[in-house]
Amino acid sequence: MNSPLAYLNGEYIPMSEAKIPVIDQGFTMGVHAMDLTRTFSHKLFRLEDHVDRLYRTLRTMRVDPGMSFDEMARLSHEIVVKNAESINKLDELGLIHFVTPGTTPSYADVPREQIPPTFGMHTFVLQLGSCFQNYQRGIHVVTARIRHQPPECMDPKLKVRSRLYWFLADNEVQQVDPRATSLVLDLQGNIAECHGANFLIVQNGEIHSPTTRNMLEGVTWKVTLKLAEELGIKVVLRDITPHEAYNADEAFTTSSSVCTMPVTKIDNIPVGDGKPGPVVKRLLEAWSQLAGYDIVQRSRDLQGVVVA
Known about the structure:
By secondary structure, the chain is an alpha+beta fold. The chain has helices at about 25-30, 45-60, 70-85, 130-135, 165-175, 220-230, 240-245, 280-290, 295-300; strands at about 5-10, 10-15, 35-40, 45, 95-100, 120-125, 140-145, 180-185, 190-195, 200-205, 205-210, 235, 250-255, 260-265, 270. The longest helix is centred in the first third of the chain and has 16 residues, at about 70-85.
């Protein structure tokens, strides 16, 4: 199989050769905007929404990526077409965009305002086959002692790689259950989000989500809420405590790679009857219609398929 390509600072190169200097601010200061877009049938899904979020993050960071929105979108489609040629037809790709401010000023030999940004893209094969059992049985989320970074410090709407608190939360949670997903609370003790995913519950047939004050506004989260409304399911945004989550009828996460994933255990407490519930199943069916194929069945078909 051919090595996938990466796009870095204006050129395509084999991903194995893509390198960023250690003096880049992405390393020295952790200043690193990013976004992830997935494909369905090797076509990017909601690319414009993801690129728009990236540009909004960069605007707040005061970093110019050095190219127009349309050019970034064109290159995004281009790299997916190139890399999709060498993967299994049932597999899907995740596309990563990343931007840093470039070389750390104290190491640069030009004035700060002349330092060019670092811009790159690469793809990877989504490990969808490993998700089948989770779709069938649900996942376990565990509340970490580490609290979510408060919006008074940094707006959670920024999509960035500066995630030390997630690293610490994951390490703590994995002491409880190595396969669990970390769930963090805000400073008031309300649920914020999971690592890499939004967290929601179902009560009396309604979907309840944390407000956007302390969580990233996920593209998949927004699509899921729209699908729920089309299905006639009421959506409520409010503060949610762990106690309420323990006593919910259902719970689930949303993220680009898996769309909607049932949560059947929180802090070792079964959610509802401990099995994926009817609302989550309806949402997965709606997502399958969007994707153009049965998402859960595709995951099952990919079980045991070796991804090179």
